[in-house]
Amino acid sequence: AQKITQTQPGMFVQEKEAVTLDCTYDTSDPSYGLFWYKQPSSGEMIFLIYQGSYDQQNATEGRYSLNFQKARKSANLVISASQLGDSAMYFCAGLTGTASKLTFGTGTRLQVTL
Amino acid sequence: DTAVSQTPKYLVTQMGNDKSIKCEQNLGHDTMYWYKQDSKKFLKIMFSYNNKELIINETVPNRFSPKSPDKAHLNLHINSLELGDSAVYFCASSHDLTGAADTQYFGPGTRLTVL
Question: Does B56 touch chain A (CB under 8 A)?
C-alpha cells in the first residue's frame, strides 16, 4: 500500500514568483512513480509531471519541476514564474509497481495573486 | 481530438433512480479506470479494467456496476441511487496495467447530484 501526504491545504503566491507544493509518500515497494495533477476550477484533472523511483534526475516539464528527495520520501512540485492561470488544486499521486491504482493526496489549493 | 471523454458532464437525479455514465478513450490504451471525487475533493479509485477484464474493485457497493464493451469504453451504471453517491466521477485510461510509470489520463468528470 502507498500513502501520499500533502500538508498544505492552501498556498498563496504572487505572480511571477516561484512556489513549492509539498508531497511526501510512504511505500515499501522499491518501484514506484509519483505524479502531479492540476485541477482548475473547471474541474478537469490535468497531468503535469511524473517522477520514477529509479530516475537519477529530477523531472522537469516547462515551468514545472519535481524536487525528488528519495531519502526524505518527498516529491515536491516547483512551479516557476507563477501565472494567474496556475490558480487551481494540485494533487500529488503515487503508483507502485505492484498495483495499478493511483493513490492521491488531499490536494493543495494554490492561489496566484497580482 | 478529445483523449478521454465522458457523458454526461452533469447528472441530476432523484434518490432511487438508476443512471449510467459513459466513458470513451481514443488513446489506444489498454486500461481504464473509474475514480470518485467526494465533496472534500478526495479522489479514490473505484474500478479498473484491462482489455475488458475487471482488475480492481475497491470495496464499492454492488449498486455500482462497470461495463466494458471493448477496451476503448468503460461505462458505469449505478442502481438505486443514494444521497451519498453525489460526487464527481472521473474516468481515466493508461497504456499498461503494470509498471509504476504508467501515466493515467483523466476525462473531464461527471458531476452527479442525487436529490
Answer: yes
Q: Which of B44, B103, B111, B112 to mutate to test the interface with A (most CBs of A within 10 A)?
A: B103
Whether pLDDT at A84 is above 60? yes
Instruction: Show residues of chain A in contact with B111, CB under 8 Å.
Output: 43
Cell numbers found for residue A22 = 509539498
Say whether the peptide bond before residue B8 is cis (omega within 30 degrees of 0).
Answer: yes
Q: Are A22 and A111 in contact (CB under 8 A)?
A: no
Cβ atoms of A21 and A74 within 8 Å: the answer is no
Mind listing the pLDDT tens digit for each residue in B18-68?
A: 999 999 999 999 999 999 999 999 999 999 998 888 888 888 899 999 999
Provide CB contacts within 8 A for A16, sequence distance 6+: A81, A82
